[in-house]
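Recap from last week: sequence in, structure out.
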Amino acid sequence: MDPLLNPAPLASKLRNTLVRYHSIGDGEWRVAKKTKDATVWCKPSEEFSGYLYKAQGVVEDVTNRIVDHIRPGPYRLDWDSLMTSMDIMETFEENCCVMRYTTAGQLWNIIAPREFIDFSYTTSYEDGLLTCG
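Predicted structure tokens:
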């Protein structure tokens, strides 16, 4: 993998994209899952084949402890049952890194295990966090 010499422009673009996605009107999203504490919405992406997802909920805990479970790191393996391994390949700042992870096979390995390399970015926004990978 070629080194990313200056992640600042990519991080800035991702932050702007996250804010734009967050600003999409509620009428364009459909509820994918709802519990008493959280709601997840989805909508078809206009940029890639797949869906955008947004989640909102209230978790009563220390903010940094929650963030540690969202951003890439060892806690991610605790709750994401599909993820079988994860390595942070390069960290640019606390909220910005390149990670490689593998997912388990599904449906009796009809869907094969896969490996991904993602640029992960998390930023504070208003009274919460926006994150993407």
